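Consider this:
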Amino acid sequence: MEVWRRNLYVLCSSLFVVMMGMSMIMPFLPLYIQQDFGIEDPHQVTTWAGLIFGANFLTAGLVSPVWGNLADKHGRKIMILRSGYFMSITVALTGFAGSLWQLLALRLINGLVGGIIPASTALVASSVPKERTGWAQGMLQSSVTAGTIMGPLFGGVLAGHIGFRMIFVITGCLLLLATLVITFTVKENFVPPEKKDRSNLREDFRMIFSSKELPALFFVTVMIQFALFSIVPVLPIYISQLVGSEGAKVALWAGIVQAAMGVANVFASPRLGQLGDQFGSQKVLLFALVAAAVIFIPQGLVSAVWQLVILRFLLGLFLGGLLPSVNALLRRATPAHMVSRVYGYNQSFVSIGSMLGPMIGGFLAGYVSIEGVFFMTSVFLLINAGWVYYTYFRRTPVQGTGSEL
């Protein structure tokens, strides 16, 4: 088997395990805070949950460019191993936190040492043949999404038997196991860049943002995460309005709604990645953005929960074409010696979108309406589609876009 293909399959399997472990506990974070730390006031619970959940994204967004710069200088595999081993320790220690402040600090540290996904993305992008980039990125995205879907299922079962704290320990062990597999099976023929290609973070920032394509792709990344997370804080409330009840029935339907989008994403990502390789990732990206924007509108107009399930499934099909297309276009617009740095910056924008989505979605739902969150997200996606259209279709493409950097 070709080395790049084996690396891809190993990283897909490992990231599935990593994301399954990481998502086993995060959906139940409010319950963990309530049960294990004795916080009963609902307002305090949600406030702490928001802070602790967002802490990881905050620090990850700040340091991702640093890790990307180091990866381009010293190799992508070493950054995967650095992230995996340190995260396995911090996540396991989270299960022994004695206070909410310790829990918050560990989440901040986890963001600082993290970065296994962007490093894996960069390694795949730098080793896969360019004509297979879209397909490979789709495979990677499918594995991440599949793990995210399976995690809450196992977490919900384990929580009732071993408690929330032990789930953190198990997650740490899963991270360690996945990292060990990568250590002994993934091969990288890394060639350090020549001295003239080395640069500091300030120079990287100037070169990257002087490009026409990359800022547009970074904004797309923000909007993808925004679209994924904007409705999360209020989705159970919206579902309770549709089913007219509370408790277990709402939780069941919430799980079905989330799973519908995730399953569609898993199946669509590789296929849309292949279509990007055949017809152009920019075309798939524009189509997926417009389609996702349109699908968001009727979600705010449904009268039954089964309608929401169908629409979220359709949304997942189109969202599955976004990240693989973005990652493929990033690779094609980036010189080989800057791949990790660009993916590091893109990870910072992933973090920004992941923070802004729940914050703005929750704010609008409280002051406008839950339906307004769907409509707002649709408008932002359409604006983003306009930017992509202007960037890729309203001007003569520059051959060898990496030269713009």
Summary: The chain has 17 helices and no strands. The radius of gyration is 21 Å. The mean pLDDT is 84. Residues 42-74 form the longest helix (33 residues).
